[in-house]
Amino acid sequence: MGQIIAALGIIAALGIIGTLVGIIGTLGIIATLGIIATQRHSSSTNSEVTKKRERDNSSCSEEDQKIISSSSPSSSTPRWKHDVFLSFCGKDTRRSFTDHLYSYLKWKGILVFRDDESLERGTYISQELMQAIQESRYAIVIFSKNYAFSKWCLRELAEIVEWEEKKNLTIIPIFYHVDPSDVRKQRGTFAEAFAAHEKDPMVDIEESNTWRNAFTKVGYIKGEHINGDRYESPIIQQISEKILYNYKMLNIRIHEKQKIVGIDSRVGEILTLLHMESNDVRFLGIHGMGGVGKTTLAEIIYYRFSSQFEGSSFISCIRERSTTTPDLAPLQKQLLSMIMQQEIHILDYREGLMLMSTRLRNKKVLIILDDVDCEKQLTALAGDHNWFGPGSRVIMTCRDSHLLERNKVNRYKVEPLHTTDALELFSLSAFDETHPPEDYKDLSMDFVNYAGGLPLALDVLGRSLCKKPIEIWKGARNNLKANPKTKIFDILKISFDGLEESQKKLFLDVACFSGQEIYVNFKKIYSADVIEVLIDKSLLSKDDVYFKERLTMHDLLKEMGRQIVRSECQEPGRRSRLFHHEDVFHVLKNNTGTDAIEGIVLDFPLGGILGANHGEINPAAFSKMRNLRLVYFCDFAYVNFYDFRHIKWSGNPLEYMPSDKLQFLRWFKYPSKSWPSSFQPKNLVVLKMPYSCIEQLWTESMVLPNLKKLNLRNCKNLIEMPNLTNAPKLEKIDFSCCISLCKFHSSIQMLKQLQELNMCDTQIKQLWEGFVDLPNLKKLDLGSCRNLIEMPDWSGAPNLEEIDFSSCTSLCKVHPSIEKLKRLQILNMSRTQIEQLWTESMVSFLLI
Description:
Layout: H1 2-12, H2 17-27, H3 62-69, E1 82-87, H4 90-93, H5 97-107, E2 112-113, H6 127-134, E3 136-143, H7 151-166, E4 170-176, H8 180-185, H9 189-199, H10 205-219, E5 224-226, H11 232-251, H12 263-274, E6 282-287, H13 294-305, E7 311-315, H14 318-324, H15 329-340, H16 349-359, E8 365-369, H17 375-382, E9 393-398, H18 401-406, E10 410-413, H19 419-431, H20 441-451, H21 455-465, H22 470-482, H23 488-497, H24 501-512, H25 516-525, H26 528-536, E11 541-545, E12 548-552, H27 555-566, E13 577-578, H28 581-590, E14 599-602, E15 616-617, E16 630-633, E17 648-649, E18 664-667, E19 686-688, E20 709-711, E21 732-734, E22 756-758, E23 779-781, E24 802-804, E25 826-828, H29 840-847
Parallel strand pairs: 1-2, 1-3, 3-4, 4-5, 6-9, 6-10, 7-8, 8-9, 13-14, 14-16, 15-17, 16-18, 18-19, 19-20, 20-21, 21-22, 22-23, 23-24, 24-25
Antiparallel strand pairs: 11-12
């Protein structure tokens, strides 16, 4: 819906709504979908679950089993760049059905590849299109009357069929005003088309036969037949629902067989308690020890049955996220936005309570609250049964059964797996078979007994021993036998001990430094293969939550990693990582830091008083930390709880901090006004210093060859942008709300890797002059730049997708080069002084 808002904002500001209505009429926008078709390439948006789709209530359907069997643990998990590849004849459907389908899929958050019109001028498929087909999960083929006349379409179809046979590409045919049997047998206009191709000397008989075979094969696949006897919008919705359903099944990796072991009986028991056919509102708490499979069980319930509800929401990792967002309003916002399928703005916890208690009363919803550990969370997210409409179900996972009992929540306890299921799960992880080989049977039973039926331990153990010689197995078994009081951490540590040094380093970083912001940036610091090793060994997970990728680690593994670090030395200053605020203050105040320290995270427990009783800190305590890589002094979503300025420093911390190995620096409310010339972090990848006192960064050009993110948001005293000439890898820059910043630095014009630039609410008067080369720039935010008087030349930024000029009250003219932005999706020019917009052709380029 953002495109509608943007377009309305542009035109309403100019008082030409009548023109808009005329344009909308000519574009054939689907009223029932309520969306405008956007530009030609895909981008993801948040979306929510599909509705009114009947599923089997007790076990995996035939379709589910197909998904499950399509990928085994022995093969690498497919990683697609696109969810859908659209194959169509532009002459027939580009500006009608295909455009509507593309826009709806995209609105639902499905990543769609649709080729540019310019690509179809050639005869052969470009490498870009071939790669797009190979990197797609689904191919939607829209057969129309002129489809077969296009050699381009035929070669595209042949490539799709080839990859359907080679890989797990699923084809969904749509027969658009053509008879499916004509497609199968190449009759009617298709016969004419093939006859023409076979007379063409440029087409050999072998290629023509390949096209015919592809037509026949896809023609026999069950798809959608559109012949004018029903509305198209429900068909588009059905296609979207199918893709979303299967996508979510894959998203939780239900196709991995170990996720299914022992699950069906538990699902059946939970369904008995939920009594889905009942119209009352029911709460259910799934409880049990860590690693027993509570979250996995809740995920499967959610993804298997959410389509039966009018809205649904899965809120994960609530315990962890509550420590960094103590107000809980962000969690309320996420829950409501997902269910309402629109952005819900919540100022604080109390407003969230009001909205939670009123907005869902008439909706049948399914809500999963994962890892709840205190009553405030329950009050904020599911305070009362009467908040929700008839037939609603709220499921929460929790370790504390007494919390559920105190709140009168019906309970289901997840017990460890019994021996048969435990052995099957372990065998699947270790051998990709349901039973171990005969010579490994006794060893396998030993490990199963040590794991105590915990799925997490069984999976991690099995993966750590997979493809290892039997001597390694015996050594690991003997180590466990030597300690009769073996705990779960000792079992899990076997997998950690088998890692290489770089892999161990990443594991401990993730375990010790909580927070998705850090996790996202680890992807910038560590190579993809290191991350993938941890994922393959089940030590790290990579999930797509509503099409946003994130790294996660089970809390038992996280605690094991922290225990490993704590066991390095009794003195915190001799440990590799400091992650508890008392340890951080101990080291800084007593100057006990050493070169063992690689990372510091400073945050505070809920209700803590920042800086209390800590006095003044001498920053010279940093000087001994010569191997420092990560510094994270974090903030919270609601900063009134804490104030980093309460920490008093006797000098500029960066003057003493070793910079040679520093890769990540995040310092909320950095206390000093200047950047020391001696601080030269040449290996820095991420630099974030929001809300700081800094007035100026480096004066000369700083050599930062690896820097990818720069964030100085809300540094109200910053008067000058730094010289970024020697930071060629920068991808994101944020100077938003730097209200003293009045000049654009020309070095930004040379950043060819730059993707996002945010300078909203600054005092700048002008961006770049003339042509600049910013080929990767996609998002530009200049909202509330009230002194900005003119737009720049857009010719050198052809891939811009989103531009915000809202509340630029001095802006009065559109630069004509904006017509060249063929990928532009959102343009916000509300509350500007623009009196004349553009020609009709320029309006059309934005809305088609």
